Amino acid sequence: MESSQLSGIYCNSLTQYQRLLTREVFIGDVALGGNNPIRVQSMTTTDTMNTMATVEQSIRMIEAGCEFVRITAPSINEAKNLENIKNELRKRGYKTPLIADIHFTPNAAEVAARIVEKVRINPGNFADKKKFEFIEYTDHEYESELSRIRERFIPLVKICKEYGTAMRIGTNHGSLSDRIMSRYGDTAHGMVESALEFLRICESQNYYNLVLSMKSSNPQVMVQAYRLLIARMKEENMNYPLHLGVTEAGEGEDGRIKSAEGIGTLLEDGIGDTVRVSLTEDPEFEIPVARALVGRYNSRSNHKPIEKLSNTISVSKKDTIGLPNVHGLPYSPFEYKRRDSFEVMNMGAHNVPRVIADYSKHEKITAASLFAVGYNYSVPTDKWNLTDQACDFIYAGDNTVDFAIPGTLGVICNAKTWEHFSENDRFYPLFEGNEILTANNTNSILNFVRVSAESICSDEFNFTKLPNNSVVILYTNNEHAMPALRRAFIYFIENKFNGPLIIERGYADVSTDLLQLYSSTDLGGLLLDGFGDGVFIRANGNASPQIINSLGFGILQAARTRISKTEYISCPSCGRTLFDLQETTAKIRSRTDHLKGIKIGIMGCIVNGPGEMADADYGYVGSGVGKITLYKGREVVTKSIDAAEAVDALIDLIREHGDWVEKSE
């Protein structure tokens, strides 16, 4: 049966929601993993040497629902002060476990491990230095480097064993060591191997009180890394609990979409034992987002059954680039490859995924109605002005559209209503299921066919007879929506249907905040696997067209499948931060948010500097009190600029490299 055969991949089942069973680990008195609830955590942003400020912020986090509080300890002094913070919290009646966050300083970790309930170390910078150098290692040289790391790491392991302290081995995509990068590249594979090296050292000392994480600012890399980690752990008979997070997710809508795509995609498959949402906001505002993501799965196991996969699924030895070979799945869950499809008008093949806006519930559609979805009609000039987030189609349903539409927009009507507009340019019919097979009239250019995932998998819908100019809109009413839709995509691939497929999801009675998180998970999880030639979000009047349209483009951007705006990779701040991240991010955004396709990293300190920015085009990094260092990619351009002049200097740098355009009025 499917459930047993899938045990060799990365989750228990691709069609039935089940938590992945991991080893139970105790952080203080709080159990993590096993059959315990998914825990929620966050990190303080105060100076760790400011005991009272850190205590007060920790209390705000705890009262918001934070179950573990992480505090940075960049040096021995901060590590020692964790005792004062802990004592003050305990004196006030708060027993929430504390976690020390360590980068670069093993001696600080050794101090902290005697005080707090858990330490987090980053294998990329615990015993290695990062200079972005490529070094050709022989096997003997590589093993010598591992011996050096063992010698530096084992003292911490022994302290953790002695004091009953847990440890998170937290790999970050952007801070892989030069040693790992030289052998495995800047890849999910490299992230996993980096963690496994440290895991093996821990196990050699019979220390198992461990938690793992694979974080990246790119949800695609993050999801692939966690899946690959699980597959590799299974090969070595490991089952450590997993801490989920998308690092440097950013702020506001962008940060929430990116976090939900990465974290939610894994939660859908039962993966994850604790969650941290990294937003460039006060930490207590991260907790409701994390709880909303986690809370969705409290009763998920009762969902409607999904058709099981027909093929035997297994994993063989690793392929030539070190990834597990999956047999029986028509795609690899460890690598991104967009599903092959042929082109119908501007959909499928090489085209970016399209966005459909729902106007079927509007009383009347006017030219002014389209302002919300990126089209602004100017009466004096009689012209349409388009934004970078102008939707590609509107679904009018049975509504009429009696004005001249913009030249780049298409209108989708229900099939019977479309017959009244069939002579109009850029008006296209929507057929329900097999309705198109008996229709007397179809469009010679483009037809939309809406079908449920369930009818696809049960052969109720005969897609083999579809006209070649058809685009399928795929939907489901199953609560376990992402896996239900994924099952249908797999069915299409197995049966060699290569027409374009649009993902539709409808939501009733959910707030705008939940709509943001749920749709980012349901649609984003599919896009990350290369599925989907467009998105169609329907919210039954619970959110404005402008919010839904922005959400659709945001989901595509977070999945790196369609870029429509500037991307900001900004860290969530911590006690190491050397400037006000929220204020600075807002200032940089106000000056640069028109630079479509440019990625700007905004990092509070060098720990979250050139490495953590991963694939940013430009970097703005705190390098001292009131001082900023600017990067082009991973190269330092200017050091120690006064903070008051740094944003202007960043603009000049962007201009110098030819990426600047003036804002249109």
Please specify the SSE layout and strand pairing.
Elements: H1 2-5, E1 25-27, E2 30-32, E3 39-43, H2 51-63, E4 68-72, H3 76-91, E5 98-102, H4 106-112, E6 118-121, H5 139-163, E7 166-172, H6 178-184, H7 188-204, E8 210-215, H8 219-235, E9 243-244, H9 252-268, E10 274-275, H10 286-295, E11 314-318, E12 324-327, E13 354-358, E14 375-378, E15 383-386, E16 393-397, E17 410-414, H11 415-418, E18 427-432, E19 447-452, H12 453-457, E20 470-475, H13 481-494, E21 501-506, H14 512-528, E22 534-538, H15 545-558, E23 567-570, H16 581-592, E24 599-603, E25 618-624, E26 627-632, E27 635-642, H17 643-656
Parallel strand pairs: 3-4, 3-10, 4-5, 5-6, 6-7, 7-8, 9-10, 13-16, 13-22, 16-17, 17-18, 18-19, 19-20, 20-21, 21-22, 23-24, 24-25
Antiparallel strand pairs: 1-2, 11-12, 14-15, 25-26, 26-27
Helix pairs in contact: 2-3, 3-4, 4-5, 5-7, 6-7, 7-8, 8-9, 9-14, 9-15, 13-14, 14-15
